[in-house]
Each structure stands twice: as structure tokens, then as C-alpha cells.
Amino acid sequence: MSTENEGAAVPPAPSAPPVPVASPAAPPQAAAPDQGAPTAPIPPVPAGAPASAAQDSAGPSDGPHAAGPAPDGSWPPPPPVTPSYADGGGAGAGWGASYQQQPAPKPGGGRGGLVAAVLVAALVAGGLGGGLGYTLARDNDSSGSTTVSASDTGASQIKRDPGTIAGVASKALPSTVTIEAESTSGEGGTGTGFVFDTQGHIVTNNHVVADAVDGGKLTATFPDGRKYDAEIVGHAQGYDVAVIKLKNAPSNLKPLALGNSDKVAVGDETIAIGAPFGLSNTVTTGIISAKNRPVASSDGSASSKASYMSALQTDASINPGNSGGPLLDANGSVIGINSAIQSSSSGGLGGSGQSGSIGLGFAIPINQAKYVAQQLIKTGKPVYAKIGASVSLEDSSNGATITDQGAGGSAAVESGGPAAQAGLKPGDVITRLDDRVIDSGPTLIGEIWTHKPGDKLTVTYKRGGQEHTTQLTLGSRVGDS
Predict the structure, then answer these.
(1) Which residue out of 211, 240, 315, 428 is catalytically annotated?
(2) Residue among 74, 175, 201, 207 flagged as catalytic
């Protein structure tokens, strides 16, 4: 609101600071001005000065206002227009100029010199008193409000409890890297990874390093600025997991501790580290908002094949560039690899559009990723669990239907494979694996890939409207196909 007085006369302006009392030795003075008039003239308002500080701060506006003179009688008059960061030179006649001093007493003997000496003594005493008063007020002020100053040790020296988000982040960040992958044609992108072991292996997503698979360039940069060339050890397109290795890896690498994703509960706190939109070393937080979420993701390109996971869902802010980064629990242990987001613009998961987080991020459970990474380090190739049957990938809520024909005209149920040995046939609709509900083909694939070859599962399926159960031992497939 305005502080201007509307419809009322403004009282006379107060005078400038009073003139010091004249001593008997001072020369005669001119006649005093009329009673009530200022002892020094108030300078005129400079043309173009703002109307008043109150008017400038009255509220937001649609655009800049033109400066103009203050209304007649406004108080206090506005300051003169001066350049920002003026060097302090040039007193001028603007508002706030010093008032006119009386001439100093003429030097001489007798009383005039004594008065001058007394004035000097008074000034010195006043200075001492002022300094003493400031000290006492600073040390013993109990009559007014009291402020408390923070320690001068600096924020960098404050110790955070290991269980806090800041404590977890400070411990985990040095073991994360920003990955840049570039193809031979110069195309590429940015993602994240984390230290898997002391030998220099870094775990990330397959889609993060895909551009560098065929002779491209790969680098990994730590938060402290150390940058290393890297090479791909192995990658699994179906799992969306890859392992790279630093060239000339340092000897002081600290792998992140791996947690147990099977023990994660909905509502558990999560901490995500990554490079969203290229902003390296970004930390965000949230919770586990769902478990065993069936997700089929791809980069949206025509040549891309989908990856399948039974994902951990989190509302921690995850954006393009977070891919491959660790999802940590409250203790700082890795429980997942951030891999996909629900995109409101593309309507799907892992789309190519640069849309931001809407609170639906998905991570590969670390128990699965650990197994895949170990296989890639050992053999350079992924090993997939399989049932030996082709299922429909169409959206469904009834289950995973075994198709009548497999890919490329092959048999839908592999002869002698796990599904055939379990008695499954084309047209059967699988509705459960152990205690997991299966509502579609992608859900079935993602759930199978959480297991290892040789695991025994109870399969519930429908045939001709009747429900049946059978035991199935998972087989294996080596490499992407």
C-alpha cells in the first residue's frame, strides 16, 4: 500500500541538522531567518526521480514505470538519481548534502583558545565514551532482541550423521560417475553409473552405452573431476544392464554396498543419484511407491528392442540422464538401478522425448542387476532364464497367452523345453508364477528374468476356462537375440 498522505496537507519539513552553538569568540552572524524556516534550503527534487520508495514497492506491475517528479508536499523527498555502485565521489547539492558549517573560531590567545581546547577534549571524551558504550552494549545488551550467530567453522566442516540424506549422499557420491557415450558418427548422450568393484568395473544401463558399442567412445567422470576412458565389458539389452571398465583405473576405488531388493518395502525412503539433463552429481529423494511393477521400456526408436523388468517404483525425481545411476536406501545401500520413467508427453516408458519427472520412476532391482553384472564380467554375455514358449506381447489384463506360432515361424512351445516338459500348450493363459499375478506377456517375461536358470516355479494357467497348476524348471539362453 502507499504511504503517501492523500487529501491532507503535508506538515513542514524538519530542518537540516542544527548548527553548532557559537562560542563568544565567533564572529558576528547575519540576522536570523524567520521563525520555523529551515536553517538550510531543501534542494529541489531532481527531474526524473521516482515518485517515492513506497510507490515503487507498492506491488508487481506489468512493466517498467516512467520516472517522474514527486507530488507537491511529499515527504521525505526522494534521493537523486545516481548510478549503481557509485564510487562515492562528488557531493553535489542533492538530498542528503551536508549542512553549512559555521566558520571555525579564529586562532588566538585567551579564552578562545581555551574554548577550542575544551571542545577538542569533549570530542575525544565523546569518542572514548562512544567506544566504551558500544563495547558494553555489545557484551551486555539485555534490553532488546538478541540474535544468535552461527559458528564460523563453515558448512563444509559440519559433520552430518551417517543416517541423514546428506550423510548418505556424501558417502555415495564419490563412487558414482557421469558417463558420456559417443558413436563413431558423433551421436551420443549422457548417463550415470556406479563403482561395482575395486577392479574398475562400473555398472550402468545398456541404453546409456548403446551408442558406443560398435567402436564408439566412452568416458566416465567422477564428482571430483577425474575423467577416465572406459570400455564396454558386456551389455544385456533385455535386462537393460551393462558393465564398463575404467582404463587405468585408480587403486582407491570404493564400491557402493549392494542391498537386498527382495527386502524392500513400500514406503521405504529412497535416494537417487544421477545426471538429469546433464546436471552431474544430482541427488533426489523419495520413497518406494510400489514393488514388482511390470515395465517394458525402450528408447522409442524403430530399431530399439524392449527391455523388461519387474521394477521398483519410486517417486524420487528421475529424469533423462539419471539412467544407470544407483537408487539407494536410507542406509546408503544400492537397491536398484534407475532405468525408466513414465513420460506424460510420449504416453509410454523410456520414450525419446525429453520430458521431466512426474513422480513415476522405475529401477531394476539390484538382486537381478547384480546377477547380470557378474555374468557380464565373467563371460561378456548375458544369461537369461527362459520357459521355452512364445507369449503374446499385446496389452492384456487376463494373463500371458502362449501364441500359436513363435517368432520367424518357429514353434510356439520349444520341443523338449521347460514349458513342454511342464505340459504347457499353445493357447494356454498363464495367470501366476508362484505367488506373482501375471496379467500380460511383458509381465511374465519381466518376472521370469528376476529368476535364475534352474529355479523351480509353480505355474498357474487356464485352458478351456479351467484353471490348472504345474511345476516348471527354468532353462537358460545365452546372449541377446
Answers:
(1) 240
(2) 207
